[in-house]
Specification:
- The protein is 70% helix and 2% strand.
- The chain is mainly alpha-helical.
- α1 packs parallel to α4, α4 packs antiparallel against α5 and α4 packs parallel to α6.
- It starts with 11 loop residues before the first helix and ends with a helix.
Length: 243
């Protein structure tokens, strides 16, 4: 009979720090609640500010967890499940409410499209094959917080917004690739630079109460389209562009 594998000795401090990473991730849910409170009263700038904080947390908590070995130190708590729960509220649920509760969509389409967003988003987050082996997302990755942000800034006609939302709901289930801005190796430096510029312009738009002017709005949109398009280019075209 083989001896049972021994768990490595873990200090109380290491456990406390590791649990602190989980608390940081869970604070994203608090940001979602505060964003929802703001959305209910139509305080869209405050809502996007809280969603932005949640997005920042989501960008750093995984790296912190891997650096500290949280999964090995605290195997009782699943960081992946916690992350998915928080991401669904911040990426899907609150933005769906905002898209429906604002004047972005035609009245007749607002609730049906919001329902389509949360249902498709829930199914997407349950997909064990949502990512490829090289860290691309399969299908539109339910980034409804970013979609809502763009729609608020562009101020397009409601019918155009409804068409965009409907297309993206369908693309959730289409096996095309969308880039992960940090983990995809191909063009990583360019993608991170685009992400930094996108974030700075987004902050500028928040400071100017979602009315940054057409130049900033369309530059911001062009950067958003980069993330949308770069994963759609075939590998051969990418190889040519990389030379």
């Amino acid at each position: 009979m083989e001896p049972a594998a021994q768990q490595p000795d873990v200090t109380a401090r290491a456990r406390l720090l590791s649990f602190g990473v989980h608390i940081l991730t869970a604070f994203g849910a608090a940001c979602a609640l505060l964003a929802l409170f703001a959305a209910v009263t139509g305080e869209w700038v405050a809502m996007f500010a809280w969603l932005g904080i949640a997005l920042f947390i989501d960008g750093i908590d995984g790296a912190l967890a891997r650096k500290r070995g949280v999964a090995e130190i605290l195997p009782r708590w699943s960081g992946d499940i916690l992350d998915s729960v928080v991401d669904f509220t911040t990426y899907v649920f609150v933005p769906a409410f905002a898209i429906a509760a604002s004047d972005l969509l035609p009245d007749s389409a607002a609730i049906p499209l919001a329902v389509a967003i949360v249902v498709s988003g829930a199914i997407y987050f349950a997909d064990r094959q949502m990512k490829t082996s090289d860290n691309y997302f399969r299908g539109f990755p339910a980034l409804w917080n970013a979609v809502a942000f763009h729609l608020f800034i562009l101020n397009l006609p409601p019918e155009a917004n409804a068409a965009i939302v409907a297309v993206l709901v369908v693309l959730t289930f289409v096996p095309i690739h969308f880039v992960h801005p940090i983990r995809v190796a191909r063009w990583r430096a360019l993608t991170i630079l685009a992400l930094i510029c996108w974030s700075l312009l987004g902050l500028y738009a928040l400071v100017h109460e979602l009315n940054p002017g057409p130049g900033v709005a369309w530059t911001f949109t062009a950067l958003g389209l980069y993330f949308f398009i770069v994963g759609l280019l075939p590998g051969r075209a990418l190889n040519v562009l990389e030379r």
